[in-house]
# Entry
Amino acid sequence: MGNPEQTADQTAHASTGALLDADAEQRLRLAVQESLPATIADLSNLVRIPSVSWAAFDQANVAASADAVAALLRETGVFDSVRIAQAPIGDGPELGQPAVLATRAARNGRPTVLLYAHHDVQPQGKDEDWESVPFEPTVRGDRQYGRGAADDKAGVMAHVASVRALSATLGDDLELGLAVFIEGEEEFGSRSFANFLELHRDALAADVIVVADSDNWDIDTPALTVGLRGNVTFRLTVRTLEHASHSGMFGGAVPDAMLAMIRLLSTLHADDGSVAVAGLTEHEAETPEYDEETLRHEAALLDGVTPIGSGTILSRIWSKPAITVTGIDAPSVANASNTLAPSVSVRVSARIAPGQSAADAYLAIERHIHANAPFGAHIEIDDIDTGDPFLVDTSGWAVAEAKRAMADAWGSDAIEMGVGGSIPFIADLVRVFPQAQILVTGVEDPDSRAHSPNESLHLGVFKRAILTEALLLARLNGRSAIGA
# Structure
């Protein structure tokens, strides 16, 4: 959480005021249920907008997505202000992607809750790898398929739907302060995020922050994410020649860039596939039971392919570093000629264990690359992005309230889990709002395939996630804000 030193007096001060009675809770459940078809239809409309925030894609789609989200929030009638805003990237003049910011002032000393999600999505990849059109939402069985159906337009709609249910149930008794921040560039590194927080610090200030961009244990068991790995990503270029040369004339005496790159990349891992970069650390933590058979199913391992690393499987995913080459610029097989490549570039994505700063991890990787460059190859590292890992302080009252809401909505106790992925902007939230308690929730499950072809949302999980948030907000509506 944002403030691990919250005192018992503060916790008592934030104790429950007007409890959500049984009749109101039943009306809240009914509101979520009855509005679910409309919620799914609104989600479908968002999925149809190909809001890929990467620079190579049409940015008009990101703007259209922001407009659609803003309209949904205005239609709730709950907010004092709904607007679309942008912030500068770094210290330069370039602006980040459009985000949606909606605010409602707290009444009568109630707390304020900030609801975060993002409306941009990953590229769809190859259309032929999808069983249905990527940006045409398609329901098959219990799941809706489409890019962004789970990550994270379902998170956006979970916020919208829970606010709708809250308003329908409480009406004029809704006194909770609300801020909604729907980012437009999370999939492109949240490059303007820190500046956005600074520019809108007052509007975003909250007692509790709900980040709806994570996973659940399975389709029947909710989870609260309490640990996230950080990330270091960069482009690595290896050069060995001033120009391409004939592979028959010089091969065997001249190192081509592909050979040098392969040799260099091979030094990043030990024989068992674990990371072999000195200076990258691990985090010691207990992990739930999770066997290799489950891993093989959820990760789609082919027959005969073995897992990598050492220690418990979840410790490898949650608490240890990982390094992956996610892209390569080199001659394609179809265009291959008998030449020695003068340069090759790859995109490297490293996940950093909780407890280590991304800056220190980058320096360790950089040292390793330069120390292991083969054949005197020239090395260039650029286009660097970093994000710090995060550990949630689970001692605050908001965690207890979130777990209670999950248990009541799902009929199953929540699991505290780590996640191998990264949400690097959370470190910025902690820095700017150190007193806020942060809850990392989500609408995904192990079969959602976020970022992959055939991404999908389990509609039962979606309903339970909406109800969880609606119960949480309704109960917080009966609390007093800390410091009030």
The two ends are 20 Å apart (CA to CA). The mean pLDDT is 93.
